[in-house]
Amino acid sequence: MSDPTAPLSFRADEIDRAALDQLAAVLDLQAARPGIRRLREWSLAALHVQPGESALDLGSGTGSETRALAAAVTPSGRAIGLDPNPGMALLARERTEEEGSTAQFVIGDAYSLPFPDDRLDVVRCERVFQHLSEPDRAAAEVARVLRPGGRGVIVDSDWGTAIMHPGDPEILQRIMDVMLSHTANPHSGRLLPGQLTSAGLVVEDIGTEALIQDPGDVTGPLVQMMTAAAIAAGAITEAQSAELLDQLNAAARSGDFHMSVTMFAYLVRKP
């Protein structure tokens, strides 16, 4: 079992299987959020995936959306999920076998996609670019593997839009500053259009939703990660963290709790 009080990393390539199980539980909870469901539905509809096509889910995580792509391309096509962590790829394969899906999974990273030029019809990527120190390289790889006329949807958060309420504004800002400093590309949501365009792709549509945390998440892994990181960085004290958590818990009980970050989805096409 992983330590429930330890800060949770969202970098799947940096954590072991025990921590992956914890991360998978968080991803499962997030997948049930209305904002995530709506944006994923928008993305799949925008991609207009057809039977027989080849599709890549870049940063496939638990594999849920790779399986959705597999259902869309049917057994006559191919849906591949790519993740940098072998443990996460194994977890996705286990779930896929249980569901009887034709989705396949490989290990790799966004900087060197294991596909020839102009090979794929569809690329889907969700909440990966925020973790990349060289997002332009990844955008160029997406453009490289898409065939002419191929489509992609790149989804990412912009942590500059994050809201946590209630709490002392100064303490909340310190926590967010640490969160931003620990994220390689925290403003990915607003930067993606320029990066994708520079890679030679055409942005054809934009979708957006807020990932709104449930009041029950006040003591969950995401809040733990943020406050623990702020304490470790010396930005806040343990006493300030405890006071904030008390305020958030009281707000959750009274209906005055809000925590969210805005996500953006960009539909692109290769000319």
Automatic annotation (TrEMBL):
GO biological process: methylation
Pfam families: Methyltransf_11
Keywords per UniProt: Methyltransferase, Transferase
CDD domains hit by this protein: AdoMet_MTases (cd02440)
Residues annotated as domain Methyltransferase type: 56-153
InterPro entries cross-referenced by the UniProt entry: Methyltransf_11, Methyltransf_Superfamily, SAM-dependent_MTases_sf
GO molecular function, one term: S-adenosylmethionine-dependent methyltransferase activity
Descriptive protein name: Class I SAM-dependent methyltransferase
Native source organism of the sequence: Rhodococcus opacus (Nocardia opaca)
